[in-house]
Specification:
alpha+beta, about 240 residues, 5 helices, Pseudouridine synthase
Length: about 240
């Protein structure tokens, strides 16, 4: 499970994390993880500023310095990052189209599972922008998601709560023979040293499922729009 380098900035690396690889295993640093691989490749004392579930794949930004980590943490806390994902859900496309629109939930983490609660949880927001047929299975479909908050298992638990768990995600009720497919496909952020708004798009890779043409076009359109509509700048820059 090799990590693929997409871009390098003075303070960060942008990579594609493969499915099945943990972002970090702090209790067992010798075990295989994204952090261990990057350090073994000579990238130094890198620092995670966000994570992807082990079963997910796609873009991750990893800080190379303490200052860069602090910068990206501020950007995330202020919700200035822009993030889009593609997931396979255990619903045919006719049903999945009913998901299109904004979703809000309050999430609580209990051990290694997230739950939707009526009160006392963290407010969590996402938009489902498109549902497209999965070219190889009429019983499942792909959805394009814009994620506004980054809670633990947020996409997985919120879609399951909406009646469309990710296919193969047995933690949240996703049946079927498919492995979980959740890919971070577009990421927009201000670069650590210059404040320049930059948008990265995940290139095709071995963990990506085959997409319908309308989904591929929608992902490209999201990336293009993100490049021309940066969020308000960080006042500290």
């Amino acid at each position: 499970m090799a990590v693929r380098l997409v871009a390098t900035t003075p303070g960060a690396l942008v990579v594609v994390k493969p499915a099945g690889l943990a972002s970090e295993l702090a209790r067992d640093p010798a075990a295989d993880s994204l952090v261990r691989q990057l350090r073994a490749d000579g990238h130094g004392d890198i620092r995670l500023v966000h994570r992807l579930d082990a079963g997910a794949c796609g873009l991750m930004l990893v800080a190379r310095t303490r200052a860069a980590a602090a910068h990206y943490a501020r950007e995330i806390d202020a919700r200035r990052w822009q993030k889009w994902y593609v997931a396979r859900v255990a619903q045919p496309v006719a049903a999945a189209r009913g998901l299109v629109g904004p979703h809000k939930a309050y999430l609580r983490t209990e051990g290694r599972v997230a739950t939707v609660v009526r009160s006392g949880g963290k407010p969590s927001f996402l938009d489902v922008l498109l549902a497209a047929p999965a070219p190889d299975d009429a019983d499942t479909s792909h959805v394009l998601i814009r994620l506004h908050t980054g809670r633990f298992h947020q996409i997985r638990v919120m879609l399951a709560h909406a009646g469309a768990p990710l296919a193969g995600d047995r933690t949240y009720g996703g049946a079927g023979p498919w492995p979980l497919y959740l890919e971070h496909v577009v990421l927009g952020s201000r670069v650590d040293t210059t404040g320049t708004w930059t948008v990265w798009q995940a290139p095709p890779h071995e963990d990506r499922e085959r997409w319908a043409p309308e989904l591929a076009a929608a992902v490209d359109a999201c990336a293009a729009t993100a490049r021309t509509t940066p969020p308000p700048p960080d006042a500290a820059l």
